[in-house]
Recover the amino acids of this structure.
């Protein structure tokens, strides 16, 4: 297992490096620069700023200098605000993590419950109703759902404030982010539960007179959780990266707002820092979800 973990960590480092390279060179390939829209800057001041952020050097040299700086844990400072990038990213991520954590919890709990109900009521009206709405939810992207919820519940009905920093403002963003993964987990749980209920050990438990509740939760659901755990890692990454647009729609000051602002203002250090942070988070969550398999099912090996 230790060999597997080391191999995955090395692969994760290579993956993050490739993402860094693609983001850096694609970012610099776009015409213009961070100071091209600053009309108040004189040519002399712009030249000094270009030298300060190494923007006067060739792109390959800029990339090497940035990677050396990153190797020491230094994300640099924002071109637009002058603030430390690492402080800005981690402070903003607290808001995004809170929103994403609530959305993930709602998606996981509701998906498991609805999927179990659908499996236990197969071919009856609760099953058909749950599958219908889960199929509908998977077809609607989170940013589209967020826009519709904002128009209906904030602007038309006025049930929720458009601009707010209270917990009330988290209701609609959580629904927007949780809907797709909840629908996916529902369908995944139903399929896994039906497969588990048809196994020999479940039939044996029922033949021995084990109560139905114990058969479902101790035997069937535990084995049905393995495919769900497979999806939890990518789901968390999906929610956290998908929250970038949703946060901007609902004006929540999280990492998404900083990322979008960095793109519109051509703040190169901010774009790189948020991309690297989210890429590292994604590969880490995938690794953790792989390791959790072993805890759920000891029969799984990493050889």
């Amino acid at each position: 297992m230790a060999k597997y973990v080391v191999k995955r960590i090395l692969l994760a480092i290579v993956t993050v490096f490739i993402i860094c390279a693609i983001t850096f060179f694609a970012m610099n390939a776009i015409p213009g620069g961070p100071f091209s829209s600053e009309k108040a800057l004189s040519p002399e001041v712009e030249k000094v700023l270009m030298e300060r952020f190494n923007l006067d050097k060739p792109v390959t040299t800029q990339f090497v200098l940035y990677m050396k700086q990153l190797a020491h844990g230094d994300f640099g400072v924002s071109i637009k605000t002058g603030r430390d990038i690492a402080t800005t990213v981690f402070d903003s991520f607290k808001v995004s993590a809170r929103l994403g954590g609530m959305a993930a919890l709602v998606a996981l709990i509701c998906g498991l419950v609805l999927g179990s109900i659908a499996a236990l009521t197969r071919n009856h009206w609760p099953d058909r109703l749950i599958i219908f709405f889960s199929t509908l939810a998977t077809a609607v992207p989170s940013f589209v759902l967020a826009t519709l919820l904002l128009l209906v519940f904030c602007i038309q009905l006025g049930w929720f404030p458009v601009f707010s920093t209270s917990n009330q403002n988290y209701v609609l963003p959580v629904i927007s982010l949780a809907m797709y993964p909840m629908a996916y987990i529902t369908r995944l749980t139903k399929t896994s539960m039906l497969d588990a209920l048809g196994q020999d050990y479940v039939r044996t438990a029922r033949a021995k007179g084990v109560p139905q509740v114990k058969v479902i939760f101790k035997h069937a659901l535990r084995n049905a959780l393995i495919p769900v755990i497979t999806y939890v890692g990518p789901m968390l990454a999906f929610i956290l990266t998908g929250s970038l647009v949703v946060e901007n729609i609902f004006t929540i000051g999280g990492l998404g707002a900083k990322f979008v602002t960095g793109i519109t203002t051509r703040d190169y250090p901010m774009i790189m820092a948020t991309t690297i942070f989210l890429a590292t988070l994604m590969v880490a969550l995938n690794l953790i979800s792989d390791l959790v398999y072993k805890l759920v099912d000891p029969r799984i090996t990493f050889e």
